[in-house]
Amino acid sequence: GDGGVFGTPKGAGGANKGGAMSPMCAMNTPRTRARGQAVPRADSAAAEEKSPGEARVREAMDELDRRLSIGSPGAVDVVEDHDDEEEMIDVSITNDREGNDANFRIDDDDDGGGGEDPPSGVVGGIPPPPLCKPDGNRVRNDRPPSCPDTDEEENLLLLDEVRKDVIRTHPDLRFFLEPADNLGQKRYAALERILFVWAKLNKGVRYVQGMNEIVGTLYFVLAQDSDESWSRHAEADTYFLFNALMVEIRDVFMAELDEADTGIHGRISNMITLLSLHDPEVRCHLDEVGIDPSFYSVRWLTTLLSREFLLPDTVRLWDSMFASTHKDNFLRYVSVTMVMVIRDRLLAGDFSACLRLLQAYPPPDLDMLLESSRALWIYESQVTLACHKGGISLGHALRSIPPPPSIVMAYGLHAGRAPPVSRQVREAGERLGRSSAAGASSVASAGRSMLGS
After folding, report:
1. What pLDDT, on a 0 to 100 scale, did the predictor assign at position 327?
2. Backbone phi, psi, residue 268, to 5°
3. In degrees, to the nearest 5, what angle opens at C-alpha 245 toward C-alphas 216 and 152?
């Protein structure tokens, strides 16, 4: 802990400018020619009479013939099929440099007539294919209708994801169920707008379930302000406060930072380390019955405990948390104290009982919970300072520094009180005697087994 924990206040293909078709698109566009007619070259007189688009096609075909004639590594196979009707050349080319296959087919069957030149970007009267990136995003503003509008689809998916969570935010609270003038639905719509806009402006974080609980609580408090000049701006104020809060806790919602100290796994690890220090008995019991810390602590940390308490208690808890200079440590000590407060029921329970207690936390005395967590932090700070600065042992520090009366557990001791030295010696002797008796019994059993008796 540190001194202010409980203190005050993220292509392919393209088009040339002017709508002209790129050479790759031109090569992918089929044309026709008369049977037996040679493929015209770009340096022939006929090429000069054709459109610029056809000239680029012929240049590309010349480059293809050149590569085939010199045995270029990129040339894989050439198959010629002849019949009475037409001649077709199928060419498959592997682009070794890019590591991708560029397969195209040229179908030429032209009667050699003059005719009217096709428009720019159109070869053989057939328009080029849509210019789309492999991921479906189009590469220019004049997007053809055949490419999906991915931005719109992304917005719809995001809005649907947000809406599913918003309608489950405080579902039993009349504030969001007000039927008059459809006020409850309008308030839910305000939460949707806040979360949607924030997610669009913070694509590195995106929307994650749990944010709705935080926004819902903030909006409830601000919209309930007795001063109408303040409450009418509750939506804008909620967005501002939510954004300021996310600056401090956004790492919890970023998957790439899960293993960092500020990520969700790092914070869970820090919380369990603190629980192991102060109540190792409960920690070992939860491990033995199969309770993984993520079963309950992910929700605790991502929603800032807003789903564990009634709304008035959540507001009271957040008042203290926002006054803290280190919200991460505040939340960690409160979470550990929550586990220790129900330690007797946890130690007596099996997997299902423990999981039920931790996922549906019983209503606490919130003032006592906050005082206990604060006292635990103060006592730990005093003991740590005495050991590091005073150069004394942990046992000596525990016997020398009286713990605050509101502590539940500290350093594995009930109420943080170290037993007298005489009692510690007596308990150590009893444990040694039990171990010796168990060892002697094991030796005797092994001897009888060997002797067959």
Report:
1. 87
2. -65, -45
3. 65
Residue 246 burial by CB count (10 A; 0-12/13-18/19+): exposed, middle or buried?
middle
Copy the structure tokens of residue 155: 């917005």
Nearest to 264 by CA among 256, 223, 409, 110: 256
pTM (two decimals):
0.62
pLDDT at 127 over 80: no
Region for residue 227 given its phi and psi (left: phi exceeds 0; alpha: psi -120 to 50; beta: otherwise): beta
Q: Tell which residue, 297, 302, 312, 404, has the closest CA to residue 366.
A: 312
Q: Which residues of 301-317 are buried (b: 16+ CB within 10 A; e: fewer)?
A: bbbbbbbbbebebbeeb
If you write DSSP's letter for every residue of 52-115 in order, what string do you get? HHHHHHHHHHHHHHHHHHTT-TTEEEEEEEE-SS-EEEEEEEEETTTTEEEEEEE---------
pLDDT, one tens digit per residue, over 417-453 is: 877 666 656 766 777 777 776 666 665 665 566 555 5
Furthest C-alpha separation in the chain: 114
Asked if residues 345 and 357 have their Cβ atoms less than 8 Å apart, the reply is yes
| 55 pLDDT above the threshold of 70 | no
- The answer to whether 169 touches 216, Cβ cutoff 8 Å, is yes
Is residue 7 within 8 A of residue 333, CB to CB? The reply is no
Between 32 and 207, whose confidence is greater?
A: 207
Amino acid identity of residue 96, one-letter, is: D
Q: How much is the pLDDT for 13?
A: 40
Three-state DSSP at 36 gives: coil
